[in-house]
């Protein structure tokens, strides 16, 4: 290894990565996001209009996406 790369490697070993959401709370966060997404998607399905798309549809899809990823990580499925 070159000297600068070795310096970066040593500096990185002194400060380990700490995730924003810990392993113990991933299941709770994922379940909550999935529940919110199903509620918002259900309301959006009942009242479909262009005006409801940014209010219900987009937050529902984002909550489902992040909730699915957190649930996959929480139950130990490696993607």
Automatic annotation (TrEMBL):
Pfam family, one: Ost5
Biological process, per Gene Ontology: protein N-linked glycosylation
Keyword Ligase: no
Mode of membrane association: Multi-pass membrane protein
Residues spanning the membrane: 27-46, 53-78
Keywords: Membrane, Transmembrane, Transmembrane helix
Localization: Membrane
Signal peptide: none
An example Gene Ontology CC term for this record: oligosaccharyltransferase complex
Domain of life: Eukaryota
InterPro entries with a match to the protein in the record: TMEM258/Ost5
Assigned protein family: Belongs to the OST5 family.
Function summary: Subunit of the oligosaccharyl transferase (OST) complex that catalyzes the initial transfer of a defined glycan (Glc(3)Man(9)GlcNAc(2) in eukaryotes) from the lipid carrier dolichol-pyrophosphate to an asparagine residue within an Asn-X-Ser/Thr consensus motif in nascent polypeptide chains, the first step in protein N-glycosylation. N-glycosylation occurs cotranslationally and the complex associates with the Sec61 complex at the channel-forming translocon complex that mediates protein translocation across the endoplasmic reticulum (ER). All subunits are required for a maximal enzyme activity.
UniProt subunit comment: Component of the oligosaccharyltransferase (OST) complex.
The protein's name: Dolichyl-diphosphooligosaccharide-protein glycosyltransferase subunit OST5
């Amino acid at each position: 290894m070159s000297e600068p790369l070795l310096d970066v490697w040593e500096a990185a070993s002194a400060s380990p990565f700490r995730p924003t959401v810990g392993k113990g709370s991933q299941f709770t966060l994922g379940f909550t996001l999935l529940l919110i997404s199903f509620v918002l998607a259900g309301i959006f399905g009942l009242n479909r209009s262009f005006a409801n798309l940014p209010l219900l549809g987009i937050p529902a899809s984002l909550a489902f996406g992040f909730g699915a990823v957190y649930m996959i990580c929480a139950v130990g499925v490696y993607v």
